[in-house]
Amino acid sequence: xxxxPNVQGICPLTRKEVFDLRREVPGWSLADGHLxxxxxxxxxQECMNFVGEIAELAEGQGHFPDIAITEQRxxxxxxxxYACGGLTLxxxxxxxxxxxxxxxxxGMKI
Length: 110
Description:
The longest helix is centred in the middle third of the chain and has 18 residues, at 44-61. It is built from three helices and four strands. It has helices spanning 15-22, 44-61, 89-100, and strands at residues 29-31, 34-40, 66-70, 74-79. The chain has one domain: Transcriptional coactivator/pterin dehydratase (Gyrase A, domain 2, 2-Layer Sandwich). It is α+β, with helices and mostly antiparallel strands.
């Protein structure tokens, strides 16, 4: 699946839809209405490389996450469709794409 461009005006998913789709993206959790996952890497440079891969994927789909690097070795990715005020199918598509993507970084724990 690919992301739908320009989701402004689309209604966010219902709680039931979010609950059902959440099963399709193992490793992701819900926090404050966002779809969230924390990845553990060995070094800060590996975090930066991983963020670059996520940025490239997001650019290709036209749907962008919030990203944070914490403690020099964790990358936190959060999906939320701000234009809609909630989660949309795009957020789950991107989480699934990240789960399906093979990252060649040594020490990557997905």
